[in-house]
Fold each of these.
Amino acid sequence: IAVETHQAIAPTGAPADYGVVRFQNLAIAVLPLFEDGTLMLVGQHRFPRMNYSWELPEGGSPLNDDPLDGAIRELKEETGLVAGRWIPAYQGLELSNSVSDELAYGFIALDLTQAEAEPDATEAFQLRRVHFREALRLAATNILRDAPTVALLYQAHHMAIEGELPDEITAAMLRRETP
């Protein structure tokens, strides 16, 4: 990252100091959605908040790379999953536009097959497979707090309701689980 400060004139005409955090990477999030309506969550320690976070597979991708290439890499790196089909869900989501220029790209990964995960030397992941509706409930009750994860879950729900996902996947992800 780079941090810049700017002395500027606000839209009101008043002088203002602005700080901007510039990112070298795009934020990438992937919703790996299985045919039975389940998905894979990744658990890991997050240094900035000193907490343990459950989230969708995600990471950074260089600004000049195709965001889909980053999504393919992050999914395999964190889970070992390889997708046969990719659906863009959001592009250029502004993560913290009051202080940052960071943009996020979210993808839905379908037709999944298992391969070997390839985590970085600094990464230790736990994997948890849950039904889509359970993940949506966890987001709605503030248990899942990662912004790209929450946005991607809600976007996928919207896409399912609007008929923008394959019918068989929509039926599986929206079915009510019995306790």
Amino acid sequence: MYILGNGRLITRSQALPYLENGAVCIDGTKIKEVGETAAGYPEAEFIDARGGVIMPAFINAHTHIYSALARGLSIKGNNPTNFYEVLDGTWWAIDRKLTLKGTKASADALYIDCIKQGVTTIFDHHEIPGSLFQIAESAKQFGIRSCLCYEVSDRDGEEKCLQAIQENADFITWCEKEKDPMLAAMFGGHALFTISDKT
């Protein structure tokens, strides 16, 4: 149990939206009390927020983990003039070259950034076989709640599309068996103009 206190507390509660000098008492994964001092717990370890902001964490509702190591990337000869050219010349080019080792490095980098920026939940689309299970390992390692899917698309042909559908189905089944409250699966289509009516 610990108390995070001596900070400007934003609760997002109508009853008590803000305390200039607030504290939160946390026991395991549960918030026991929120208030000015939360001092009724002498056994709790005190963590001094030193006047910083204490608030609920952020949710990143749309990210692509494989882009974590591509910030500022410029591909020689790629000068896109529209959205499709950005996708085809940059992101899909990266997708086609990414390995599981690269996926792990990207996931680790993104999860470290999440921790630094106060993000505790992400929703991600990914693109290479086995990637969802690799990302799930990193999510568990860093303690970031993750809802993951594999991008279903016809852009690389029917075989790749069917592989993406199977990857989603396998990960959904695995998540249902695991019952890990920190991991969830969704079924992803990306992007609509690359998906046939049949798919």
Amino acid sequence: FHNLGGSVVDHGEGAFCAAQFGSDETVFRDDVALRVDPLVPLRSGSYRFTPEGVAAEPCTFVDRGRLIRPVLDRKYARRLGLRPTAVPYGYDTVHLEGPPSLTEREAVAASTCTVLSVLGVHTQDRASGDFSLSAPQIVAHRDGRRTGRLRGTIAGNLFALLRADDLRCVRFAGEHTPGLLVRCRLDAERP
């Protein structure tokens, strides 16, 4: 969401400019949608009002690969001449939709590893979308079977991944937010 934030858009520091929001330009795969619904009951990311007093409401930021609106607090809403938006406070109220979904088992069979967590997401380059993130918990697999633990670094470009034809969501039992099956560089070793 940082790349869709009002300050990044207003200052021209990100990959997207204000004119792209609400236009017909497709910047991601045409089946990608990203929205937030802070009114979902009993979720950690639910709320009635932002800290600035903006009433919570469902908000779509990306639809069919097009930028609909940036994430805006009151200050940047004024600067950009738009209404303030809902702000995502927890992943359980964020909805990524569109790319075909795989089960965990299907994803393990189709990949060489599962990255369970990454550190330093805030270090992603805002303008280019490039990232290089420490991945301290990786599970390696071969022929659909888990073969051991790794740790290392993953690197790539977030925007390229969201445009890639082979992007897939991975649904995990008991989890609301899907994982993503993507191709990126992995430099790993056994701990």
Amino acid sequence: LHAGVQMLLRLPMKKQRLAEFLGTFTLVFAGTGAIVINAASHGAIGHAGIALTFGLVVMAMIHTFGDVSGAHFNPAVTLAFAVARRFAWRDVPGYLGAQTGGALAASILLDGLYPHNATLGATLPAGSETQSFVLELVLTAILMLTILSVSTGAKEKGITAGITIGGVVALEAMFAGPACGASMNPARSLAPALISGH
């Protein structure tokens, strides 16, 4: 983790990439951590608590890092901003690397804390793979529409954006989480799947 942070600080846009690394780390650590701790505590957090955790951590990280990096914390968000011409394509690889690195660091830490958890909160389909793919596609499209509608630019620090985006994440996790995991975030899906071997 320390080596990764030091590497990010040596790159151009160091503050923005570090913010993306830390924000994505926190999102994955808290969100998938809630899933892992729920399993370890025999359901003490519950599905609603897990969905709320994801929404609250997204809201908190938007307010923490929105004015530094734009608070993407999600490769899908970075790509959506680039396609909408509100984020430079040349900066996309650095953001994607920081987001993936932060997510992997969170899953590695959770694996160290809970070595007996089999999936580390990986988003595994409860139904068919096609059903989960379509659900994730629609959920992510709704999230991207919301983000592009409430965000004013590459940097974000408004109270409305954090509450709205966090609310949509919690809403979608609440109703679709049991079916597909409601990830809406490739970094959040990749990290626990890779580290847990699922």
